[in-house]
């Protein structure tokens, strides 16, 4: 069964750091790129960033660039999101999702997604 | 405010056909493919339609997608109670160099 499971969420103070994990199962992890997507309370989805299947490229949304870092450990079939200098506006449910498609990011899609992990940034 | 615009809500009775729209611009929908997802709060979003109008295996043919210019639509025919969920669209945006999403449409089956 193809599955992604996020963990590591919780409540943290502004300015602090948190690392999220996304463990994959049911498929060959190192054949795929992965995305992080978040949804703030009452808001729509917001793309956070992507890491290529071989880790060679990473792209981020402007809202997190310089603060968040995506990495992967293929031996553990795990994707990570290191979040530094957290802000109140980073409060959201964070989802990981596998990248699927033809190899052209402009025409790709996401599937499956994990169930999400909640990050709350509050003093 | 989301880059792609969707109506916040839609509704229909069992058996009806409903359509959910997704409006964008030349830098996203107008030049790239659109994907649709179904999301029940607290669960993992599920891919419904990819590449404008393609259904993954396992998705009923009651679900269909279309695109014209800078707008896309998701149609659900033969509405069922289990279709009650949030639906959102997504596309790559060339100007932002990133993925953009619609704000989501909450579908209620009356």
Report on the architecture of this protein.
The complex is a heterodimer of chains A (123) and B (110). By secondary structure, chain A is mostly beta strands. In chain A, a hairpin with an 8-residue loop joins strand 9 (92-100) and strand 10 (109-113). Chain A has strands spanning 3-7, 10-12, 18-25, 34-39, 45-51, 58-60, 68-73, 78-83, 92-100, 109-113, 117-121. The model of chain A has no long low-confidence stretch (mean pLDDT 96). Chain A has no helices and 11 strands. With 110 residues, chain B is mainly β. In chain B, 0% of the residues lie in helices and 45% in strands. Chain B has strands at residues 9-12, 18-23, 34-39, 46-49, 63-68, 71-76, 85-93, 98-101, 105-109. In chain B, a hairpin with a 6-residue loop joins strand 3 (34-39) and strand 4. Classes of the chains: A mainly beta (123), B mainly beta (110). Chains A and B meet through strand 5, strand 9 and strand 10 of A and strand 7 and strand 8 of B.
Q: What key phrases describe this protein's structure?
A:
heterodimer; A: 123 residues; mainly beta; 7-stranded mixed beta sheet; 4-stranded antiparallel beta sheet; globular; B: 110 residues; 9 strands
Quick description:
Chain A is mainly β.
Q: Work out the strand percent of chain A.
A: over 45%
Mean pLDDT of chain A: 96
Number of helices of chain A: 0
Strands of chain A, count: 11
**Segments of chain A where pLDDT lies below 50 for 5+ residues?**
none
Shape of chain A: globular
**Pattern of helices and strands of chain A:** EEEEEEEEEEE
* Global structural class of chain B: mainly beta
Question: Looking at the structure, what is the overall shape of chain B?
Answer: globular
Radius of gyration of chain A: 14 Å
């Amino acid at each position: 069964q193809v599955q992604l499971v996020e963990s590591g969420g919780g409540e943290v103070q502004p300015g602090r750091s948190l690392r999220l994990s996304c463990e994959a199962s049911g498929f060959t992890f190192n054949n795929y790129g992965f995305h992080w997507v978040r949804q703030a309370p009452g808001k729509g989805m917001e793309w956070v960033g992507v890491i290529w299947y071989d880790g060679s490229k990473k792209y981020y949304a402007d809202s997190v660039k310089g603060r968040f870092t995506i990495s992967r450990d293929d031996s553990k079939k795990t994707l990570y999101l290191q979040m530094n200098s957290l802000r109140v506006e980073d409060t959201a449910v964070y989802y990981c999702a596998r990248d699927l498609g033809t190899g052209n990011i402009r025409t790709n899609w996401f599937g499956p997604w994990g169930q999400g992990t909640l990050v709350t940034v509050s003093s | 405010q989301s880059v792609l615009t969707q109506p916040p809500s839609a509704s229909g009775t069992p058996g009806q056909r409903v359509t959910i729209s997704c409006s964008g611009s030349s830098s996203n929908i107008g030049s790239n493919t659109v994907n649709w997802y179904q999301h029940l709060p607290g669960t993992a979003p599920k891919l419904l339609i990819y590449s404008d109008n393609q259904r993954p295996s396992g998705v009923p043919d009651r679900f269909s997608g279309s695109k014209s210019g800078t707008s896309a639509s998701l149609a659900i025919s033969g509405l069922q109670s289990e279709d009650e969920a949030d639906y959102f669209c997504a596309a790559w945006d060339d100007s932002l160099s990133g993925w953009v999403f619609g704000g989501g449409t909450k579908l209620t089956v009356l």
